[in-house]
Design brief:
single chain; 2 domains; five-stranded mixed sheet
Length: 364
């Protein structure tokens, strides 16, 4: 029977591939089993990870260790570092899953890239975990990313002032934790350490605010569950929606602007199903735009304000209509009431004299 020391030494030998596989496995687990950003157990899962990371930071800065201890499985420092790395990986995995579900890639890719790079850095830059500024940079990024969607859930609203409140609370928490760390470790941080902490935390705070106010951060906890451009939309007796769409080949899935054949005077329907937490106070906007090829810009043809009721897993379903769309490229931006992008429906209007062949589908 294998002894504890044998298993410990085996893990120390193969720590890098085991760590990589566990992080990948954790990401797959989160993608499959974590459902909604507003549910208790999902947020409790994040809170536990944050708590364990905080305890690891305290232990790392209390324990006496040498650089060689980072690679020695017989030392406690080795296991604390590995546990913190695993917990950080779990946090960034959850954030990637939740924010990706709420994101429009064309607008939110910079923020998703930051989370992805942090996820990779957590695996590749383990040797930097002994640096306090590196620990706090990752920890604060996690705190801010969590507060962005947790605070709106608590106050049942999403807006600029709620985001500012989220950022302020994240600063209060990180500064309070730094004060607690100094007390527990009896550490007198020198000027260089303080400067690095201020720069790392301040930079993350400014970058996150810049990303939010340029509409790059996905508007969690809201998310677009379903959407489409249809020839007709109607509520059926079964509680679902009947929609009519054109018969099209598989090639349409590779077209950025799939053709939408339209007879003059026909109505175009933009359908969206937007998830929001129960008792959430918000609305959405359908912004209809067409592309002006002469001036090479998008022109807003109209905006439709729609009410959203929260709590339904599949999202609150609603639609807007337009008549007499000119041939050419069109898009419907699905926005929050504060202008954040939830999704974007693209299509290319092709003028026809005869109605296209349509088929009916049911959206439940």
């Amino acid at each position: 029977m294998l002894g504890f020391s044998t298993i410990r030494d085996w893990y120390g030998k193969f720590e890098r591939p085991i760590s990589s596989l566990s992080l990948i496995g954790g990401f797959v687990f989160d993608a499959v089993f974590l459902k909604r950003a507003d549910l208790f157990w999902e947020n409790f899962w994040i809170f536990i990870h944050l708590t364990v990371v905080a305890l690891c930071i305290i232990l790392i800065n209390r324990l006496a260790y040498t650089p060689a201890d980072e690679y020695n499985p017989s030392k406690l420092h080795f296991w604390v570092l590995n546990l913190m790395q695993f917990m950080f990986g779990g946090l960034f995995s959850v954030f990637l899953v939740f924010y990706f579900r709420s994101a429009t890639l064309s607008t939110s890719w910079p923020f998703l890239l930051i989370l992805a790079l942090a996820f990779i850095a957590n695996e590749r830059l383990k040797r930097h975990y002994s640096r306090l500024s590196f620990q706090f940079a990752l920890f604060y990024l996690c705190l801010f990313s969590f507060s962005i969607f947790f605070v709106p859930i608590i106050v049942h609203s999403i807006s600029a002032w709620v985001f500012v409140l989220s950022g302020a609370l994240s600063l209060v928490v990180i500064v309070s934790f730094l004060y607690l760390l100094a007390k527990l470790t009896k550490e007198k941080f020198n000027k260089q350490t303080k400067r690095r902490l201020i720069i790392s935390i301040g930079s993350i705070f400014l970058i996150m605010n810049a990303l939010y106010f340029t509409n790059i951060i996905p508007p969690l906890p809201l998310s677009l569950k379903d959407s489409g451009i249809y020839h007709s939309v109607s509520h059926n007796a079964g509680g679902g929606y009947s929609v009519e769409i054109e018969y099209q080949s598989w090639a349409k899935y590779f077209q950025l602007y799939p053709d939408f054949h339209l007879v003059s005077g026909d109505v175009v329907y933009a359908f969206s199903a937007v998830f929001s937490p129960e008792s959430f106070k918000t609305g959405v906007v359908h912004q209809w735009q067409y592309y002006n090829e002469v001036n090479d810009n998008w022109i807003t043809e109209g905006e439709v304000d729609l009410l959203v009721s929260g709590g339904r897993d599949g999202g609150y379903r609603t639609y807007s209509t337009r008549v007499g769309l000119a041939p050419g490229r069109w898009r419907v931006n699905v926005l929050t009431s504060t202008g954040l992008v939830l999704g974007r429906l693209r299509f290319n209007v092709v003028s026809e004299k005869v109605e296209p062949v349509l088929k009916t589908e049911i959206l439940n």
